[in-house]
Amino acid sequence: MAMLERAEVEALGFAGVGRDVEISERAVFYGASRITLGDAVRIDDFCVVSAGAGGIAIGSHVHLAVGCTLIGAARISLEDFSGLSSRVSVYSSSDDYSGAALTNPTVPDCYRAVAHGEVRLGRHAIVGAGSVILPGVTLEEGVAVGALSLVTKRCAAFGIYAGRPARRVKERSRELLRLEAALLGEDAPR
């Protein structure tokens, strides 16, 4: 995987770029002036990141694996140490699929019914391969979502969720908080 040089990353026109950012030359960005990247961010091949008016904020130590998609008009936030596995899709906007309105961006807005809702992944939230996150969803701190899940509502802190729709299946260990402290120099690993 070929990564962009720092000057090439800066030339994309992001609202902010931290240190040690790695972006594949095969990733695509729309609305880069509404996207901020923290420190130690890695964005792999074939990711599409499209920021609408709400913008996209990607924290530090965040990884977007191959083929991830972040799209929508409302804000999308990925907090520190969160991550998306391959082919995860995050949407902060969605057409009404009921048949009560027309769909797709080629149709004038007066004939459409688009739902918008902020999406937030808390610290240490991780999402498994092929999962979809819909508008208005919050994954609280430490949430883990299993592969191929459909997330349609808020997920409570340190839960492991899976399924279509995703449901809480068990508790996630908080050991990662101690490891984070060690990484950041706040505590030595035991």
What is the helical fraction, as a range of percent?
Answer: under 10%
**Would you identify the CATH H-level superfamily?**
Hexapeptide repeat proteins
Do you know the CATH topology? UDP N-Acetylglucosamine Acyltransferase, domain 1
What is the terminal separation in angstroms? 35 Å
Stretches where pLDDT is under 50 for at least 5 consecutive residues are: none
The strand line-up of the biggest sheet is: 2-5-8-11-16-19-21-22
Number of helices: 2
Silhouette? globular
Mean pLDDT: 96
Strand content: 25-35%
CATH architecture: 3 Solenoid
How does the helix and strand content classify structurally? mainly beta
Rg from alpha-carbon coordinates: 17 Å
- Report the top-level CATH class: Mainly Beta
Largest sheet entry: 8 strands, mixed
Number of beta strands: 22
> What is the chain-wise order of helices and strands?
HEEEEEEEEEEEEEEEEEEEEEEH
Tally the structural domains: 1
Keywords: Acyltransferase, Transferase
Protein name: Galactoside O-acetyltransferase
InterPro entries: Trans_hexapeptide_repeat, Trimer_LpxA-like_sf
Family: Belongs to the transferase hexapeptide repeat family.
